Amino acid sequence: MQLNQRVAVVTGGASGIGRALCLRFAAEGARVVVSDLNLAGAESVAAECGGVAFRTDVGSEADLRALVAHVEQRVGPIDVFVSNAGIAPGGLVETPEEVWERAMDVNLMSHIRAARLLVPDMLRRGQGYLVNVASAAGLLTQLGSAPYAVTKHGAVAFAEWLAVTYGDRGIRVSCVCPLGVRTPMLEGSDDPIKALLLPEAIDAAQVADAVVAGMAAETFLILPHPQVREMTGRKESDRDRWISGMQRLARRLEGEG
Ligand SMILES: NC(=O)c1ccc[n+]([C@@H]2O[C@H](COP(=O)([O-])OP(=O)(O)OC[C@H]3O[C@@H](n4cnc5c(N)ncnc54)[C@H](O)[C@@H]3O)[C@@H](O)[C@H]2O)c1
Predict the structure, then answer these.
(1) Which residues line ligand 1 (CB under 6 A)?
(2) Please, what are the domains in the chain?
């Protein structure tokens, strides 16, 4: 899909990858809606890209419903919806219930609820594009965070299911799975995660370039870091060997931390 004149909503648009997507989509000629929990941040990005801002907590079904209704009334039918907002809570096996629930709501249920709100109308119109930002953690794992690993795997699984179920009925689906990206999320991570990911981290603008190229080609899996394809291949070919390798990496990082 080409983005010129398309109505494109980006959640988590006030910062990092979401902000880069808003700016890049606007440069491609899209009419951008910058949605974020942080309204002042969304307004500032909307001013940069000539878009409109809307405050949304993607963890709330009512907020997502209000976002979709607002855009359809004020801007027009939604052509592209990017479920990008996400959180990265740390947490081992003792992670409390409320942390799991919030991670599920923000990283996974937001994608499911957005699709529930958007797909019926997209099917009627015979077109629409859902871009779900998961993570390489959704294909591999996330050291030190069970909620992140699990919710991002769920996001990948849901995007695959959407593509299988509706992809031949005019609805395009892409799932974006970056490794480290230099954003406030990565900068604010625990030291072992930063030590692991920062050396190979890319800029948010590079992720936006990969997303626009992936959308033009209508590729399901968008991997801004090409090495992730090889890493997932190693995991698929021998999971026991992959788990041993990840255990060694986790112990090494613990020793350095
Ligand atoms: N940075 C990385 O290394 C990396 C790697 C892989 C995947 N990702 C994913 O990319 C996405 C964007 O991350 P980022 O690195 O740009 O993070 P970021 O922290 O820079 O930006 C996230 C934005 O989402 C907003 N947000 C958080 N919770 C929200 C909610 N409940 N409702 C609405 N907005 C909310 C924040 O206010 C912020 O503006 C996330 O889904 C993240 O998991 C990031």
Answers:
(1) 11-12, 14-18, 36-38, 41, 56-59, 84-88, 106, 133, 135, 178, 180-181, 183-186
(2) 7-227 (3.40.50.720)
Side-chain half-sphere exposure of 191, counting CA atoms within 13 A: 6
Q: Of 138, 142, 140, which Cα lies nearest the Cα of 152?
A: 138
pLDDT tens for 145-163 read: 999 999 999 999 999 999 9
CA 241–ligand 1 middle distance (angstroms): 31
Q: Which of 1-15, 48-62, 180-194 has the lowest mean pLDDT?
A: 180-194
Concatenated DSSP letters of 140-174? S--TTBHHHHHHHHHHHHHHHHHHHHHTTTTEEEE
Which residues are known catalytic residues? 148
Note the pLDDT of residue 166: 98
User: pLDDT (tens digit, 9 = 90+) per residue, 39-80?
Assistant: 999 999 999 999 999 999 999 999 999 999 999 999 999 999
Residue 240 has pLDDT above 80, yes or no: yes
Ligand 1: residue of 9, 17, 81 to mutate (most ligand atoms within 8 A of CB) is: 17
Measured from the CA of 20, which atom of ligand 1 is nearest?
16
